[in-house]
């Protein structure tokens, strides 16, 4: 990089940036304009020697259009992915077992889980809802598997005791 090249590119940028920005505004959302302008001038910097002498503005408009199309395609793919993942979202646990679980039992379970400590709830969530084994929970929590087994056993015992207390309170 020479200082002369930098100075030449700087004046090139200042001369053509307004036109590139106007072009980008017509092609992408307002929040994406700066991204497209930056990408356009990054391409121009890398390919500065290839820019035609007689038509730099036309070349820049073409590059701006290409970056805008890429951004639009990317946005469309991201939207389709989110829509697909949303459609694949698992049903709520209550809906999965509606034919087998008494709603009152489920309410008791939720009440008992809510009364557990945050650490016990986390262990129960990882073991039951995420279906992780003690070794996997240990890796996620940064501890060893034997400690997780002991803590999980104790958390389950506390949950059973709280379920029984909730049942006795409702009788």
Your description of this structure?
There is one protein chain. This protein is mostly helical. The protein folds into two domains: about 90 residues, Rna Polymerase Sigma Factor, Chain: A; about 80 residues, Winged helix-like DNA-binding domain superfamily/Winged helix DNA-binding domain (Arc Repressor Mutant, subunit A). It is about 80% helix and about 0% strand. Helix 1 packs across helix 3 and helix 6 packs across helix 8. The radius of gyration is 30 Å and the shape is elongated. The N and C termini lie far apart (about 80 Å). The mean pLDDT is about 85.
What's the number of domains? 2
Helical residue percent? over 70%
Helix and strand succession?
HHHHHHHH
Mean pLDDT rating = 86
What is the CATH architecture annotation of the largest domain? Orthogonal Bundle
Low-confidence parts: none
The profile of the biggest β sheet is:
none
Strand content: under 5%
CATH topology of the largest domain: Rna Polymerase Sigma Factor, Chain: A
DSSP summary, beta strand count:
0
Q: What's the tally of helices?
A: 8
Query: How would the global form be characterised?
Result: elongated
CATH superfamily heading of the largest domain = RNA polymerase sigma factor, region 2, helix turn helix motif
Radius of gyration: 30 Å
Protein structure class: mainly alpha
């Amino acid at each position: 990089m020479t200082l002369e090249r930098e100075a030449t590119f700087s004046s090139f940028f200042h001369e053509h940036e307004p036109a590139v920005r106007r072009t980008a505004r017509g092609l992408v959302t307002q929040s994406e304009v700066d991204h497209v302008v930056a990408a356009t001038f990054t391409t121009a910097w890398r390919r500065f020697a290839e820019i035609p002498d007689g038509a730099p503005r036309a070349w820049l408009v073409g590059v701006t259009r290409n970056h805008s199309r890429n951004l639009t395609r990317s946005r469309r793919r991201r939207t389709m992915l989110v829509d697909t993942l949303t459609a694949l979202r698992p049903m709520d646990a209550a809906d999965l077992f509606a034919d087998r679980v008494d709603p009152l039992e489920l309410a008791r379970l939720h009440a008992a889980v809510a009364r557990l400590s945050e650490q016990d709830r986390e262990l129960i969530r990882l073991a039951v809802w995420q279906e992780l084994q003690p070794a996997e929970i240990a890796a996620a929590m940064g501890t060893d598997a034997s400690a997780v087994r002991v803590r999980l056993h104790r958390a389950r015992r506390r949950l059973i005791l709280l379920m029984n207390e909730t049942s006795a309170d409702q009788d």
